[in-house]
Amino acid sequence: LGLGLSWLFGALRWSGGANAEWLRRYPDIAARYDVKLGDSVGLPVPAGNLGSSVSVFCVCALLCLATLQFRRVKFGNELGGPGRLPTACFFCGLWLLYIVASTIIAYSTD
Predict the structure, then answer these.
(1) 85 or 37: whose pLDDT is higher?
(2) Tens of pLDDT along 40-50?
(3) pTM for this one?
(4) Domain encompassing residue 82
(5) Same domain as 2, residue 16
(6) Residue by residue, what is the 3-state secondary structure of the chain?
(7) 68 and 41 fall within a common domain
C-alpha cells in the first residue's frame, strides 16, 4: 500500500549492522533483543494498525470488483457507457472512504 520503496531504502540503510545511531533510534528494540554494536539488524517496522488498513482496503477492493461485475452484466461493459458518472463517483468515494477510515484507525489506536 505504498510502503515498498521506503521500506526497501530503510532496510538497505540498516543492512550494515547496528551502529550507534541505530541503537540511539531504537533503544527499546535493542534492549528487548540484546542488540550490540555490529550485530546484524534491519529496519524495525512496528505492526501498528496495518492489519486494519489492509482490511479496509480489501473491503473497498471487493466493492470495486462487484461494481465492475454488475456493470458488465447490466450494461455490457465495465467502464464508460451509460452510468459512467455515478460509477466514477462511487469509486472516488471508496477511495476517500479508505483514506478517511485508515486515518481514523491510525489516530485512534495511538
Answers:
(1) 85
(2) 888 887 777 77
(3) 0.60
(4) 50-108
(5) yes
(6) CCCHHHHHHHHHHHCCCCCHHHHHHCHHHHHHCCCCCCCCCCCCCCCCCHHHHHHHHHHHHHHHHHHHHHHHHHHCCCCCCCCHHHHHHHHHHHHHHHHHHHHHHHHHCC
(7) no
